[in-house]
Amino acid sequence: MRRLLSRIVVPSAAVALLAACANGYDDTTAQDAIRDDASGDGAADADGAPDADSPPPDAPDDAASLEDGPVEEASDEDSAGDEAAVEDAVEVDPVTMCPPPGGLDCTTPGPGTGEGDECFDGVTCYMDEVQAAVRGVIADHPEWFDTSTGCEVVIVDAAIYRQAVVDRLNARRDVCGYADTNSVEEVVVRTNTTYSENFDILASTGCARYGGAIYTSTCAPAWL
User: Fold this and answer.
1) DSSP secondary-structure letter at 101?
2) 55: preceding bond cis by omega (within 30 degrees)
3) Ramachandran quadrant class, 13 (left: phi over 0; alpha: psi -120 to 50; beta: rest)
4) pLDDT band with cut points at 50, 70 and 90 for residue 122
5) What pairs with residue 145 in β-bridges?
6) What is the pLDDT of residue 72?
7) Would you say 167 and 173 are in contact if contact means Cβ atoms under 8 Å apart?
8) CA–CA separation, 123 and 194 (whole Å)
9) Positive or negative CA dihedral for 35, 37, 43, 48?
10) Which of 152, 176, 47, 153 shows the shortest CA–CA distance to 100?
């Protein structure tokens, strides 16, 4: 009986691993060789070539979306909703604009359509203008005030002082100033009848007021 001798073929990578282990060396290189042999042609090489799981570089970007099914076209209802959103976006609340829309309208007497008792605490647009007007009157007419008490006490008729502030506001030609018909201590400022603001420019102590607390309310639409 003839004995058949089988040839045992040991892959070169395995030989490298055995040799490395036998000599006590770091087997990182040998393990890399085994992984390269096992992965075949699709594995990444030392130059950074893509592996088998990476898509070809020229694959179309919309391939995945085509597998998910056809793209639905926007319906008329969706289009109408988008148009409504655009219209809402361009609508502006005049109370939040400085100055409000509509241009300058200082028609005399120019009463607005609002009610004086329906005003509210809003955001002032005209604080700087009124403060500057009061300071300007004090600088122009120092003889109208007594500063010995630590503030500018109005020693002329309050209506004269207030009218001077109103005149100075109107001289700017970018706002409209009015004397408040309900209080000798207040002025009304607006650019048009969209809304107006009220300012208290005379304290109960007789001092001229031009600090941050002079703003009292906003009326929309303007009442004066």
Assistant:
1) S
2) no
3) alpha
4) confident
5) 154
6) 56
7) no
8) 14
9) positive
10) 176
What pLDDT score does 94 carry?
64
**Tokens, residue 141:** 């007419």
Neighbours of 53 (CB within 10 A): 7
pLDDT at 38 over 50: no
Residue 193, CA atoms < 13 Å, CB-side half-sphere: 11
User: What residues pair up with 207 in beta bridges, in sequence order?
Assistant: 153
Whether residue 193 is predicted with pLDDT greater than 90 in this model: the reply is no
For residue 9, the tally of other CB atoms under 10 A from its CB is 7
The SS3 assignment for 176 reads strand
Q: What token pair was written down for 153?
A: 């006490």
**Which two structure tokens, joined as six digits, stand for 151?**
């503030």
* Cα–Cα distance, 44 to 54 (Å, whole number): 10
